[in-house]
Amino acid sequence: MAVALETAPAPVGRTAASTRLLLGAAIASAPLWTVVSLAQAATREGFDLTRHPLSMLSNGSLGWLQIANFTLAGALAVAGAFGLRRVLRGTPGGSWIPGLILVHGAGMIAAGAFVMDPAAGFPSGTPLDTPAALSGHALGHMAAGTVSFSALIAACYVLGHHFSRNGRRGTTAASRVAGTALLLGNGWAMTGGQGGSLTLAVGAVTAMLWISLVAARCLRTV
């Protein structure tokens, strides 16, 4: 799908080069997080995406991989937000979109710093039941995830507004679908519904990749 954006006048010289670098960070964030997360989900012993959220991969002897994944992807999103601010300034939603992406990235970094509790049989050897009480770092992870996902959902909807102002029906719909996928996926997971971790993963990946696609289109204007 072609993604057409209203953008500010293209920067020049060193500013253009740094803007391209920042937008490249935004482009890389979602694919990095998705590939690293799903590769671990498919290969780590005892992990079941229908029962375990991707955040739980931060536990166990290889947990550092997912912690680093959250931290690096979040840092890339934060950097990318500054690139988006440069190319979207003065356009509909041009201040809100980068700000929300920055909050999303900061939330990912915090989610890497605060690790979920082992539960539901993961890592292997963990009791199958859910802990009676959450630890402080697990609560911190939930709070960080809530902030990050809320900002990402809002960014998708504001992008929908941006595209609708420019008469782009297809990309308006795609932005709203991406935001709604995460909104519903996260909502279902929070209810504890069967397969909630899978719906959350689908929603998060959809919304994150949409932001990367939009950043890629912005890069073409620099």
UniProtKB/TrEMBL annotation:
The keyword Repeat does not apply. Coiled coil: none annotated. It comes from the Bacteria. Keywords: Membrane, Transmembrane, Transmembrane helix. The chain crosses the membrane at residues 21-42, 62-84, 96-116, 136-160, 172-191, 197-219. Signal peptide: none annotated. InterPro entries: DUF998 (IPR009339). This is DUF998 domain-containing protein. It comes from Streptomonospora nanhaiensis.
